[in-house]
Amino acid sequence: MASSSIPAGVHGDPTRRDFLMVATGALAAVGGIATAWPFINNLNPAADTLALSSIEVNVQAIAVGQAVTVKWRGKPVFIRHRTPEEIKQAEAVKLAELPDPQTDNARVTDTAKKVRPEWLIVIGVCTHLGCVPLGNKSGDPRGEFGGYFCPCHGSQYDTSGRIRRGPAPKNLEVPEYVFSSDTLVKIG
Q: H-type helices in 43-143, by residue range?
């Protein structure tokens, strides 16, 4: 019989060329990943941002009717020790009257499901254009609903941080928080 003129490797026998093609492809994949990794890693939050991902605030010194502003993730957070009148006023609002319906109880419940109606904790950024509303300092205008007032476009929030009037589409955001004790709250 005559010998076949079919080259080696056509019938499934691996050749040196097959090995070089696989090795080159693997090397290219590793090189591509090594090149792309610094760019992908750059999308992660910076170390200083991660360090501020949560803060603890001692609320013991905040008197009833008083409020403080703390900074968390570069945003102001309003912590208000509400008076019994402010709590009653917030609980009496009918949900049908609210542009963004949410009960007062839902806004004063921490992530551990503990309801603390005397404490309102909201991110102090107007949901219209990102301004910082007034009403957290003594003497600030609070609008006709006794909560917060954004002077830029006239948005008014009630004593629960819910939008009541103006162009803002949503309530002031409630961050994740938990009371680790009666006087210490962890935000974030």
A: 47-51, 84-91, 104-107
